[in-house]
Design goal:
This protein is of the alpha/beta class. The chain is 32% helix and 25% strand. The protein has 2 domains: 152 residues, Periplasmic binding protein-like II (D-Maltodextrin-Binding Protein, domain 2); 108 residues, D-Maltodextrin-Binding Protein, domain 2, CATH 3.40.190.10.
């Protein structure tokens, strides 16, 4: 089933936003000439530090393009995930571009400006694993990054806050769930060997493919995706004019093919629709 369009999602969310400080953020960004962006520091290829200690990645390129279209320069900060997605920013950041899933709890503290790409989730196992079918993961040790969609899914509490999103089908009964503070740490344990510390990891297809590209001895299990999630650009709750401006900018980037080109650049595939 096709997920809701960016327009439908934004229309619902913007309509539910109380404009307590309408226009305040846009005025601040315009007058300062800077867009303060919250993102991640260790989640390749979304956002990570390269060999020169420069922050690069898909989310960085998206945020940079948003800033460009607003006529300002981007500045980046990398707060803890729970802080970035917890809202109540107090003006520290203007926007967060961090591959954030629109869930119901987050909708209470954040405004979702619009979907900018989609991420299918897959199971990865060690290259030497004899597991060939996803159903064989029942009873196994599964690694996930904490405070993420992966953790919510594995604990059967994931609720995507997007119109017409199909219900999540839960079938996995893990024997043990191991949580990690960083997106690549589950893969670091998985690479140690089949079943040494974990039997499998669930993560976005983009993250798994990037790990394989970078030499991790792992493979993605064949079969249907566990689920497919929309990812949104978010703003702190309460400034409807700013959220609308971000929505307008993201929609233009989708319509002119910029988002498609950026996903192909970083993932080798168009995940923008």
């Amino acid at each position: 089933m096709r997920l809701a369009s960016i327009g439908a999602l934004a229309a619902v969310l913007i309509a539910s936003t109380t404009a307590l400080f309408a226009g305040e953020t846009l005025d601040r960004v315009t007058s300062s000439g800077k867009l303060n962006v919250a993102t991640n520091a260790g989640w390749p290829p979304q956002s990570f530090l390269d060999d020169s200690n420069k922050l690069v990645g898909f989310d960085i390129d998206v945020a940079t393009e948003i800033a460009k279209r607003l006529g300002v320069e981007p500045t980046f900060d990398t707060p803890e995930w729970g802080v970035m997605t917890g809202g109540h920013w107090g003006g520290r950041w203007d926007v967060a571009v961090g591959s954030i899933t629109p869930t119901k709890p987050r909708s209470e503290v954040l405004d979702f400006a619009g979907i900018y790409y989609y991420s299918p989730y897959v199971f990865a196992v060690h290259a030497d694993s004899k597991i060939a079918d996803q159903k064989d993961l029942n009873g196994k040790r599964i690694g996930v990054e904490t405070s993420t969609t992966s953790e919510d899914y594995i604990n059967r509490r994931l609720v995507i806050d997007a119109p017409d999103f199909p219900p999540i089908e839960y079938w996995l009964e893990p024997g043990e769930i191991k949580t990690y503070a960083d997106s690549m740490l589950p893969f670091d344990d998985l690479r140690l060997g089949d079943g040494v510390r974990v039997d499998a990891v669930i993560a976005p297809e983009q993250t798994v493919m990037n790990a394989i590209k970078n030499g991790y001895p792992i493979k993605a299990l064949a079969g249907d995706y566990a689920f497919r999630e929309p990812l949104v650009v978010v703003a702190d709750k309460g400034d409807a004019e700013w959220t609308a401006k971000l929505h307008e900018t993201i929609a233009a980037m989708r319509d002119d093919g910029t988002l498609g080109k950026l996903t192909e650049k970083w993932y080798g595939k168009d995940y923008s629709r």
